[in-house]
Specification:
- The protein is mainly α and 139 residues long.
- It is 66% helix and 0% strand.
- The protein contains eight helices and no strands.
- The model has no long low-confidence stretch (mean pLDDT 84).
Amino acid sequence: MWACVGFAVLAGLVWLLVWRLDPNLRRGREYEAELATREPVSDEELVSRYFATCALDSEVPVRVRRVFAKHMAYPTQKLLPDDDLEFFWAELDMVELVEELESGFGIVITQADTERTPCTIRAVSLLVASKRSTTSCRD
């Protein structure tokens, strides 16, 4: 019996260390805290504020943001285009997210695309748009 209790305590300590020290989990907690204080940004404001200089169909970043929000279980209107979501990309199997983007936009996203595309709503939106047509953005 004491062996079981000892094993349970050891397993709990290992889990606590991983939870505390894993950089992706830590960044996820920091990001959630940041989202809690962030003001929501509507779809229209997202496009006008962050994508005004892009020759990009306005539906693309709106839909990409919604897909990310669904898979991350975060409020859609609090996600911004340049949020670094690498911690999320590294922690989850992104197959479902990529499949939803592919089926939703009628495109194919290769493994090479996912490896070279930063995990931001802006970068994924530009990737999707480039797969659909010619896109350009000015800084």
